[in-house]
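Kindly inspect what follows.
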Amino acid sequence: MKRCLVMVAALAAAGAGAETLQWTGASAADQWSDGANWFLFAPPVDGDTVVFDANAAARLANDPGQGWRLAGLVVADVPGAVTLTNSAPAAVLTNGAGGLDLSAATADLSLLVNLELAEPQTWNVAAGRTLNLHTLNSGRTLTGTGAVTLVGGGAVVLKPGTSGSVGFNDAGSFSGYAGTWTLGTNVLVTNIRNGRTAFGTGSIRMEGGTLAQVDGNWTWTTPIEAVAGFTSTLGNRSTGAGRALKLQGVLSGGGTLVFDDTVNTLGADTGIILAGTNTCTGLLQISPNTEVRVGGVPGDDVTTAAGPAGTLGEAAVTNDGTLTFSRSDELVVSNAIAGVGAVRIGGGVAGVATQVVRLRGSNTYAGLTSVSGGSTLEVDAIADGALSRIGEAGGAGNGVQLNNGTLRYSAAAAAT
């Protein structure tokens, strides 16, 4: 009965009228072209949906071989993890509107193939399941323009490129993909590499999912939209010490974006570096024990020095971690900053001696304000004529600390 129900679900996912082929692995070889490996003793043809379910008794690690144009791919109640590895370097597996369906999967799926996304599609990865796309050093590519919507609450591991690669547009990666990634509720996506190598030339929409770096310090140039009505998370899961994640792409949207360091390995003077001309209008939330910097060198650049780029957009800010301003020029900050975290002007970041930060928001944060590295903090008048506050008077840890820094007021009224 269970097998029948799973098969009905797989057929429904494939769509009405689609040919659905089940893998059995009964042949002595692991090739898709061998009809003995299929339930109906014939290999798939273009437009078919391929299903791995309880009929897949053997050879769960198999080779698609020649290029196929599938309607979709389903993994259901398989007896073990499924791995597709293409032995033909030039062969491309094209996936259509049926997407990837792991909603009933009992094991994980790894795609180590050249994958083309021809149409917009949904990848449904069930909670507790993992989709691995291009495990490290497979040298395979992701191409096409079909947008991907990730749902189901599972994990998607993206590892393009080769070991040691730090390029922004590498071959053997995702640099040829031009579609949009949408991260649905509770989906976790982890990624390595820089720039187009990591995500392609499209954009990322955050709709309640989590996006995190792993295995190093990376610079992402992809635009990221925090969609209104959702709380999404962007952060670090790289182990080690002194980690940095640099965001060069524009952060936009009216949703809530939480910055988070779940492994507590971001550096005090590195952290999550905002180096884009951001336009976000929702809420930026800095979690406890998480360092976020505003200011860095723009473009295809992996350095962590101060620079003339990076803003908080028009978003409100709740800072329960550490917020550091590290521009190399002047920056007007009109955002309202709340929370219990510290605000640092300069810190120990190289290149901040020419920085002038003008606070013009109505700030209520309760943490320490420090000015260092030769930077200047200037508190300006706001629209109602009152002084911007450097945090909330009487807040825990509240106060101003100067360490080779300058604090000045531009309004005539007395500071309180």
About this structure: Residues 1-17, 412-416 have pLDDT under 50 and may be disordered.
